[in-house]
Amino acid sequence: MEKTKKKFKAPDALVLIFSLLIICSILTYVVPAGEYDRYVDETTGIEMVDPESYHNVEQSPVSLWQLLMSIPKGMNESAGIINFLFIIGGAFGVLQDTGTLDALINKVVKKLKGRERLIIPFFLVFWGLGGSILGNFEECLAFVPMQIMLCLALGFDSIVGLALGLCGVCVGYMGAIMNAFTVAIAQQIAGLPVYSGMGFRLVVWTVLLITAIIYIWNYAGKIKKDPTLSLMYEEDKHSKYRDQQIDDVDFTRKHIAVLLSFLVGVGVIIYGVIVHGFYITEMGAVFIALTVVMGLLGGMGLNGTVDSFVKGAHNLLYACICVGFARALTIVMADGKMLDVIVHGVTGVLKGLPAIISAPLMFVVQAIINIIMPSGSGQAVVTMPIMVPIADVLGITRQSAVLAFQMGDGLTNLFTPTGAPLMAGLAIAGISWGKWMKWFAKLFFAWTVIAIIAMMVAVSIGYGPF
Predict the structure, then answer these.
(1) I need a labelling partner for 35 at 20 to 30 A (CA). Which of 127, 252, 256, 399 fits?
(2) What digits encode the pLDDT tens for the residues 172-219?
């Protein structure tokens, strides 16, 4: 009798992260600990790294107790984004229970009949600009449920719904035109005029965006023709985001009022981000107010609004746990004095190589470092003081070093399990990390090639001003 082959099942996100926690903890017993000296720059007030100060320190192995403690510590340190996720989950729970989303999606599906894929460039350009100019990343998570609901109703899958947000902001970070969290800080550290070299970054952003549009456009087209080709075919059949409406849903005055209030809330958030520097705490406050207004306009009453809010927040419980676990990885590596060891090791490979080779490698090094240090501003503070002197010695312009940083920082944001936004997005969509990587691999490779070519061009043209 022939044995049935068991199909490989990608590990759950929490299983994957906990496995990495164990591996990192073991490595703290093996890898010699080391660190750089840090100081506060008097001009900018930013904590900087002295690139010549790397030295070995006493071993700091992470015990089993410390490993377990890293998880609640990770939850505490990620409280801001966790609270934000709970709030937006609750807000969308209320929005959905008013019936507005069903009515809106029904209307959009009718309007786009035969042209369903037009939503792809729309969302990618929107999030690409948001990431590139405003530094949006976590913000896109608020719209993932709506994007997935829309994509499923249009005949696509949940991967497309998630990719419209994540790939858009990733393009924004890789080709950051005016991102205050990455480019501005990196250029400030490098001594460059803030936001200089914008024209070349705009070209990079455009090429990356077009590549993403083509990739997702082709995939969505295949799924539309044959849904069984979707990596999420079985899961999407029973998805909580699946539109169950069979009959037409009228778009009533109540729905229009709720939708208008939602759009006003989004407008307030955009204004707040641009003018007042809103981040997730301020945006969460807007969503709280918006929740009450939508519930009352939708005729749900206060008790009904609270019930829907709690149910919606519960839907993002798993995503919130993933965020805390992902943060625990960074805590373990920091406690084990491994972060600076990795930075010192990977930057060491650049020395002594010709510029045309070392410049693309500089991008690769930044991408690797981003896997263990997925904070754009934090990575800039740690790596740029090291990369700038290396660039000077190798004859690479400092502007090229900044370009390598921003592209490396952006690329692996959609790869690393330590990245809270990625793990939260996957949890919201119900997509395993393994399935995401299976879908994302070709786009990841294409973006890598584009980034390497961009670095080679930057070296060839002396991308500056210096």
Answers:
(1) 399
(2) 999 998 887 788 888 888 888 888 998 999 999 999 999 999 999 999
Q: How far apart are CA 160 and CA 157, in angstroms?
A: 6
How many other C-beta atoms lie within 10 A of the C-beta of residue 449?
Answer: 11
Tokens describing residue 215: 């990739």
Q: Which of 358, 364, 369 is nearest to 392 (CA)?
A: 358
Name the DSSP class of 254: H
Q: Confidence band (pLDDT; 50, 70, 90) for 9?
A: low
Structural contact between residues 298 and 100, judged by C-beta atoms closer than 8 angstroms: yes
Q: How far is residue 285's CA from residue 409's CA, in Å, rounded to a whole number?
A: 29
CA–CA dist 373, 359 (Å, integer): 21
Bridge partner list, 40: 47
* b/e per residue 363-396 (b: at least 16 CB within 10 A): bbbbbbbbbbbbbbbbbbbbbbbbbbebbeebeb
User: Do residues 166 and 215 lie in contact, with contact meaning Cβ atoms separated by under 8 Å?
Assistant: no
Residue 435 is inside which H or E element, if any?
helix 433-461
Instruction: Please check whether residue 463 is in contact with residue 403, taking contact to mean a CB–CB distance below 8 angstroms.
Output: yes
CB distance 362 to 455 below 8 Å:
yes
94-121 residue pLDDT tens: 988 888 877 877 777 778 888 889 999 9
CA 303 to chain centre: 35
